[in-house]
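Retro notes - structure team

What went well: the batch runner handled both jobs without manual restarts.
What didn't: labels got mixed up in the shared folder, which is why I'm recording both outputs here explicitly, each with its sequence directly above its tokens.

Job 1
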Amino acid sequence: LIENDMWLTPPLLVVIVAFLTGYFYFTSNIDQQAIFDQPIVTEDHLPFNGYTIINESSLDLLVNLRNTENISQQILEIAHNREPRVIRGTPAQEWIGKWNPNQVMKLSEKGTWEVSMQKGSKIFVYANKEKSMARLSQVKFKPIQRTSMTMKKFFERAGNTSSKSYVYFSKDFRDLPPAMLHELEPRGWLLPPALHSPEIEVQENFTANMMWHLWMGSGGVTAQTHYDALHNFFIQLYGHKTFILSPPTAANKLYLYPTNHPSNRQSQVDFTSPNSTLFAHFGEVPGYKITLSPGDGTSSCLLVLM
């Protein structure tokens, strides 16, 4: 799936993202189109001109787990549908309340952290200057500025709604203070069934088989529409985050950068002011809107299969 991630509610949000490298592996060609063949029921352009938004309520995306037993097996069964799903009833609800700005500042210990920062635009476009096309004079790109600051300073900037400077933080949990990991219990349910073994420590399995990250950002910060190389499992713990998902069949109409471009896997289209001459078919792209929030104490999880 191709996704656009937008953080909506100031001052910030906290998202745990688990990239499940061994969780969902398929060898058969399963029809991924079924969920996208539904009629358009609403038109809501949000801040993006050209997208036709189909709201979550119009799609059969919500799944409630049957019970609290064999949760990883239930998630695996849901994944076999090869469609995005919003899952409720997971043990992640036990993490809610442990994660807020004050608690993160407390657990992050003293010191500074590398933060991405951008002035003017809330849309962050990743650029890898090591890509071969970066050496071409015709290729214009702007690497995201990175700076170091304390968590206290980060939250002050993220919560400043009058500022035109936006901050964005992403870190592998294995590189964060151990105290933060201790707040994410239980977490064994995130492991696929094949990795559940009494002889192997849960932490060892996480280290060997999964990438999982903490994401935080200013309200309204948006990741340029892109696709990821791995399956995603998002857990929302604080604030709100809206995803706009598009089917793989829409990739050509999103005009992705070439593989060797610094911004590969991302759309070339400026969503705030799309060039209808260069990107004539962008207006035909459907977007499926999903908003995650801790809500009423049952944290929603979003499963996105690539």
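Job 2
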Amino acid sequence: MFLMKTFLLLLTTITLCTCRIAHEAPRYILNLDLAPEKRWESIASHFNIHKVKEDVEFVIKQEVPAPLIPVVELIGENIDEYIPSPYSKEMLGLSRALNMSLGDIVLVNLLYDVTAFCTSIVAEDSHGQIWHGRNLDYTFTERLRNLTFVYDAQQNGTTVYTATTFFGYIGALTGMKPKAFSISADERDQGKIWENLMELINALLTGQASFVSFLIRDAIANANTYDEAVNMLSNGQIIAPVYYIIGGIRPGEGTVITRDRLAAKDVWELDSSNNRWFLVETNYDHWLPPPKSDDRRDPANHALDSLTQSGINASNMYNKVFSIKPVLNSDTVYTAVMSAVEPDVYTTMVRYDAE
């Protein structure tokens, strides 16, 4: 606990010189013992529902072509046919809480699955401890900062997993199974948003594919080990290409899985014996050069090389890697730093200092 307080003090101090400071995301409990339709009600009480509805409708209007909306409304009307429980039931509960159509809830969950531009890093320090961090970037940044929170999903009063998300989004793009593994997801850039959405909807209508973010929740809820999580995220059918970044609790347990919809295209692993003690994934296949217009990979690599393996810890990951530009940029919504072997470290900072 002393380590955690010291870490948060350092995070706060580093931002005092800016006109807007980062702050820790609020943290709530998601009670898994409740019926799925009821699980989000307690968390909803902490938000201005009118403002949330306004933000969700703004995002849909800005990003979704009008011809796609009736198709998604049809999915909402027959949600149990296309989306498995408990997620279909949780979406139903959210639609009631927000007084929105089920189609709009489905649509915003689809949209978040394909529009995140992120930087994820998994690294092994000189003592063999695995550290995992990520910046999550979106185009509608300001609205999402106000919706960001952390929740501990509990069953019988015990935390099963921890995740960072946005209110209204029931999937998880960042999460951790305490004492087992951590996961983040980065969009795998495959074209324009509207094209991606059309392909996603088609995959949802014609197959048994999972949302990218639902597979993460499935893993942190049901897998018990790092190896089980890697296997689940490598093989489950999903509705969009993605990168899954996974950190474990033992030396060498760090992986970037480059996913196609049906299976893994590539599995890239830590290997400290060959000086591969960290992996950096943004939104481009790691074996190809990043575009010059969006190169966050090389600055992150240089920052980690400068730190050296002995300098990796929660504070340095945040301050000296995830807070350098352009890894930190005007679209950054939050930074999360975690280590599954040390669950109390899990921290999400909302980056109001990113501009």
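One thing worth noting from job 2: Residues 64 and 194 are 7 Å apart (CA to CA).
We'll revisit the folder naming next retro.
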